Amino acid sequence: MDIIWSYCLVAIITLVLVIIRLINNKILKNFMEEYPSGKKYVIFKKDFFFTVAKIATICTIIINVMTVYGHSRLNVSSIVMTILLITMCLLSGMSFVALNEDKHFNISGYELEESNIKDIKIKEGKRKVTCTILFNEEMNGYQGMEFYLFGKNRQLFIEQIEQI
After folding, report:
1. Contact criterion met (CB below 8 Å) for 63 and 78
2. Helices 3-34 and 76-93 sit at what angle, rounded to 10 degrees?
């Protein structure tokens, strides 16, 4: 397969991700209008693209170190594809969580109530909070969701989650 087809495939997937992102932002905007007392937090979801980008980065580093060590030409296409995959990962992973006092959630476009949540696990790190939410029932193929929260509002997020 020519490398141009790989670039086309990545472009198509990126376009689909942009459309999904726009839909999720519209859903979040409606949620915030419905619950004006809600708080919005920026998150980074740990999902399929995150795993693929991590593996691709490691493989690209190994391949290019071995080619340079073997006095061969550097594989520029693998570097470009890895950068495109990392871009897709950032586009897919960056999202929002919105919470309100009535215990309604909006996580990446999915609206949840307290009754939909089986368990919430929070792990505090030095610069991030890792949150794992398990659902009572499968929702659109998800049995749970794991995400990272960065920034100044980490403590406020933890306090709101602990009230649930």
Report:
1. yes
2. 10
CA quadruple 114, 115, 121, 124: dihedral, nearest 10: 0
Helix (H, G, I), strand (E, B) or coil at 45: strand
SS3 100: coil
Taking alpha carbons only, the member of 106, 101, 114 closest to residue 37 is: 101
* Residue positions counted in the chain: 164
pLDDT band at 80 (very low <50, low <70, confident <90, very high): confident
**Whether the Cβ atoms of residue 149 and residue 41 lie closer than 8 Å to each other:** yes
3-state secondary structure of 164: coil
Q: Specify whether the CB–CB gap between 78 and 68 falls below 8 A.
A: no
Q: What is the pLDDT of residues 141-157, one digit of tens each?
A: 778 888 999 878 888 88
Please answer whether residues 41 and 129 qualify as being in contact, where contact means their C-beta atoms are separated by less than 8 angstroms. Answer: no
| Nearest residue to 55 (alpha-carbon basis) of 29, 35, 85, 34 | 85
Amino acid of residue 59? C
Structure confidence by residue, pLDDT tens digits, 45-68: 888 878 888 898 898 889 888 988
pLDDT band at 1 (very low <50, low <70, confident <90, very high): low
Q: Determine contact, residues 59/65, Cβ cutoff 8 Å.
A: no
